[in-house]
């Protein structure tokens, strides 16, 4: 019994590391692109029904409805001179001598800046709300040099963010830079020696209670120059600057006066097998309250990925208190990197700026919460993108839901927090298998936008109809967006406004669901008895489709004898053979999860002596039909 208990515990732990449910979403509104279009940049205004997608020689403005997506194409080909110069260069990759749109950022309520590679000579234009490019009085397109705003080639990593009308660009070029590259504020950049061979991943604004303390973070990988033979050649870094930074007065006049950077590690300090390379990063902030959480996807040298979480309060504390790497003198009273207005009497002195200039890296390494990755998300899936949402459940308690894109075009919906990490569901919204290249979550409208190099789609955050029309199936989903509506007797979206009345919703996000649905009359359809008459010498198997991948499935004959089954990812299949001789009777397949038992399918098997030559074909059709239900 002890061995059996250990086996069941192991199976339970393994089950938690796979999605509980798997959905194919063929009806989600989506748009496909031609091969070679390769949409790379996507942008969305919160509360809008539109998505801006940057492709080859065009910006696609997509307007979504519940059933379809409409497209307006704003053409932006490469300029003739740039195209000619690109194609004349020796060894130039002709396929990259195009204008690939890499930057789409809203500057203000009426203008969006759009930057493209322009055949190796980056250029930027301005898009109005009526989906037209801005022109001057002579009817000519208004454009500016985009050398410091956009990468020159589609394969070059970059990260951009617009804050209060200013564009910040992090470019992974021959000389990597983090710049305030466009806008009314003074244009600033990093010193050449501060960054070396970087691969920029993303950028984020972290608002604070005091606006003058707002910070902008950049996440990137950097070549580890000091790596030994057994060490990682790449290290993940986090860099930050202050929004109020206006450069120094006597030193670093055109450079950041508040730039600091730190090493970011996904793993335990004592464990040599860490995840070093950053693949994506997302900051879920607390609005204007400061704080928030950083969620990062990291990969290891052996190709697996993991998710690590970091408290931004703790990150800020480390930036404020850590020693600076290589600096051994007494730290000045005004600590280097402190956010203060340029005109403040506490603005950094020349001595403070000289420290930043020579020692911009803090000494302390930043490790994740718990000093380890989220265990349940160390799966066989390779993650590529991450976004997060803060969700109110039926009792107005706050929960975190992660959406993780995979290299197979799937999206994992994950409940994370309070000591548990549960993969609620795996969604398959795309027709073609390709890595998820972009995710944008709009909590105000309740939608998730996702893209690959071939397709773009929109998915509802609260897709409660997937959990079927019974209380137990709704509650067992452990989806904080959804609860059992007692009045309407269906699984419905929980109100996301604080203090909203949700007393008529039944919900439990913990494994011990207990008697949440006790006394609720569910309209459960009784499984139809499938009668099968076969020859004793025939080869036959009975499928039982997996509805929840966290449940335990059993086959029972005539309510007494148990039969083993083969799990293949889609079905718990009863195969008759030497260990399970075929016998006639009533065979039921049931699923048990968190104390709830559900009958999945039932067969009445009769043996006869007649030969049934078409039986294998009949069973094949029967199996396919059942698996598709």
TrEMBL record:
Residues 20-461 form the Sema domain. Residues 1-15 form the signal peptide. One of its GO terms (cellular component) is plasma membrane. Residues 511-601 form the Ig-like domain. Transmembrane segments: none annotated. Keywords: Disulfide bond, Glycoprotein, Membrane, Signal. The keyword Membrane applies. One of its GO terms (biological process) is neural crest cell migration. SMART domains: PSI, Sema. Belongs to the semaphorin family. This is Semaphorin-7A isoform B. It comes from Alligator mississippiensis (American alligator).
């Amino acid at each position: 019994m002890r061995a059996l208990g250990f086996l069941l515990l192991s199976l339970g732990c393994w089950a938690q590391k796979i999605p509980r449910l798997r959905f194919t979403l063929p009806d989600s509104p989506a748009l496909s692109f031609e091969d070679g279009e390769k949409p790379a940049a996507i942008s969305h205004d919160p509360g809008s029904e539109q998505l801006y997608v940057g492709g080859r020689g065009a910006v696609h403005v997509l307007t979504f409805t519940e059933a379809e997506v409409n497209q307006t194409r704003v053409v932006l080909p490469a300029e003739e001179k740039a195209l000619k110069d690109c194609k004349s260069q020796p060894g130039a990759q002709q396929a990259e001598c195009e204008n690939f749109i890499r930057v789409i950022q809203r500057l203000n309520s009426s203008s969006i800046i759009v930057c493209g590679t322009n055949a190796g000579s980056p250029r930027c234009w301005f898009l109005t709300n009526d989906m037209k490019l801005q022109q001057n009085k002579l009817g000519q397109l208004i454009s500016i040099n985009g050398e410091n705003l956009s990468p020159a080639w589609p394969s070059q990593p970059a990260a951009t963010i617009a804050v209060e009308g200013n564009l910040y660009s992090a470019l992974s070029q021959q000389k990597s830079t983090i710049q305030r590259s466009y806008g009314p504020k003074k244009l600033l950049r990093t010193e050449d020696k501060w960054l070396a061979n970087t691969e920029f991943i993303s950028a984020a604004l972290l608002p604070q209670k005091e606006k003058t303390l707002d910070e902008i973070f950049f996440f990137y990988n950097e070549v580890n120059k000091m790596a030994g033979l057994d060490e990682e050649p790449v290290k993940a870094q986090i860099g930050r600057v202050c929004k109020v930074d206006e450069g120094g007065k006597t030193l670093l006049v055109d450079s950041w006066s508040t730039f600091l950077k730190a090493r970011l590690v996904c793993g335990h300090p004592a464990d040599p097998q860490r995840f070093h390379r950053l693949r994506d990063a997302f900051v879920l902030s607390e609005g204007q309250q400061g704080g928030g959480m950083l969620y990062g996807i990291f990969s290891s040298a052996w190709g697996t990925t993991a998710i690590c979480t970091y408290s931004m309060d703790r990150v800020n504390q480390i930036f404020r208190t850590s020693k600076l790497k290589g600096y051994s003198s007494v730290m000045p009273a005004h600590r280097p990197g402190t956010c203060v207005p340029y005109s403040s009497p506490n603005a950094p002195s020349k001595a403070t700026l000289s420290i930043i200039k020579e020692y911009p890296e803090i000494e302390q390494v930043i490790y994740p919460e718990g000093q380890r990755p989220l265990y349940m998300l160390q799966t066989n899936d390779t993650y590529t993108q991450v976004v997060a949402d803060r969700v109110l459940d039926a009792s107005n308690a706050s929960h975190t839901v992660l959406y993780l894109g995979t290299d197979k075009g799937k999206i994992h919906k994950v409940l994370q927090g309070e000591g548990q990490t549960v993969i609620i569901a795996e969604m398959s919204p795309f027709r073609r298998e390709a890595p998820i290249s972009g995710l944008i979550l709009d909590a105000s409208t309740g939608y998730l936008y996702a893209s690959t190099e071939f397709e773009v789609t929109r998915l509802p955050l609260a897709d409660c109809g997937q959990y079927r029309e019974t209380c137990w199936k709704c509650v067992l989903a452990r989806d904080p967006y959804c609860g059992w509506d007692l009045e309407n007797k269906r699984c419905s979206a929980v109100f996301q406004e604080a203090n909203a009345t949700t007393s008529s919703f039944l919900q439990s996000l913990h494994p011990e669901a207990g008697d949440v649905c006790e006394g609720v009359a569910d309209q459960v359809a009784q499984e139809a008895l499938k009668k099968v008459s076969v020859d004793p010498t025939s080869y036959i198997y009975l499928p039982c489709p997996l509805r929840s991948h966290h449940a335990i499935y059993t086959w029972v004959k005539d309510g007494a004898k148990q039969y083993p089954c083969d799990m293949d990812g889609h079905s718990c299949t009863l195969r008759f053979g030497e260990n399970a001789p075929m016998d006639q009777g009533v065979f039921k397949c049931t699923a048990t999860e968190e104390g709830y038992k559900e009958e999945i399918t039932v067969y009445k098997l009769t043996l006869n002596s007649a030969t049934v030559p078409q039986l294998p074909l009949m069973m094949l059709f029967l199996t396919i039909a059942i698996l598709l239900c």
